[in-house]
């Protein structure tokens, strides 16, 4: 048991702190024609788009708005058409994970010669290779996904009724601005979603089986502890405490800039089961994870035993009782933490009943996700149990 071989390359330049938007022109070549892409309007309403435009004075600039939460292929393709028609060659993503994800796909799709639908991971299909992508920068307004410092995206296909993953080293952002003050306008629901999403990103890379990867384990535990210690302050939407939001923002980026994944096994079943819930019932991404994770920990308790016990001890200081009692307690503490943020952990809290178990399991089967988790043990039978345990 030792750290597995790995390759780690992360070229994303991080501009962290107050007023860093004003520095971005340093990292965009002067001859670029820039399309600013944003979501439903929060970035415009709260003045972030104006700040970006001011920072980019002198460039040729256009705007594209309306990227929805859980960004769709269909909307992204509208941007692709605009970019081709008006010859933009640099994109600025201003928003949360949805805008950043859409921009990643857009930047690859614009230069892709085949059908952009082939770029997606779909069950067991190998996605087509991205050979080229437009460069883009990010101004992040919602800490949660880590998309600002990674090479992945999740796109919803209305037509295929699926949320599919897309990724390529060529869609790492050129730079990402992380200004904690931009989080002050977030409502409690989005702050809580961000805490849970970050927490679960860490768990997907940490709560598997031990390979004696101490740097990764302690780093993961550090991010989890940060979230637990600051959770109630982070979700207090009226508390604009810079130090708290700065820790939150950096925790979220660290949750999924893939550093935690170096040399360790990874799970991701909670995410894949969660994506189906969003697709079917429209529940926010972070909230779906709070439904799935405690139940998954319970169903996979034997397979994950060593890591759950380590988590119990190092995160919650659970040292008394039998192994099973410690595991029960760790699962309970995890669910309590999510609930303390105002994020429910059961389907019934959303008035979703037993029928969901078969509907969601069938969707996963249809999408080819039948051997999930770090050991490929999360099969349809386990998936059913996990959804059932979350009712
Ligand atoms: O659309 P606007 O008007 O901008 O409003 C957004 C949106 O309604 C609002 N918002 C964002 N910043 C704000 C703000 N409101 C007030 N003040 C601000 N500063 O928040 C709402 C949610 O935004 P969204 O971008 O959808 O949230 P999030 O960052 O949680 O992203 C979720 C998406 O990321 C994917 C998810 O599947 C989901 O589609 N993920 C991407 C990952 C990745 N690329 O690595 C990993 C994640 O696990 C996740 O799957
Ligand atoms: Zn996530």
Automatic annotation (TrEMBL):
Source organism of this protein record: Peptoanaerobacter stomatis
SUPFAM superfamilies: Dehydroquinate synthase-like (SSF56796)
E.C. code: 1.1.1.-
Annotated protein name in UniProt: Alcohol dehydrogenase YqhD
GO cellular component: cytosol
Chain ranges of the Alcohol dehydrogenase iron-type/glycerol dehydrogenase GldA domain: 11-180
GO MF term (any one): alcohol dehydrogenase (NADP+) activity
Fe-containing alcohol dehydrogenase-like C-terminal domain residues: 192-363
UniProt keywords, alphabetically: Oxidoreductase
Keyword hit for Transmembrane: no
Annotated coiled-coil segments of the chain: none
Oxidoreductase among keywords: yes
Broad enzyme group: oxidoreductase
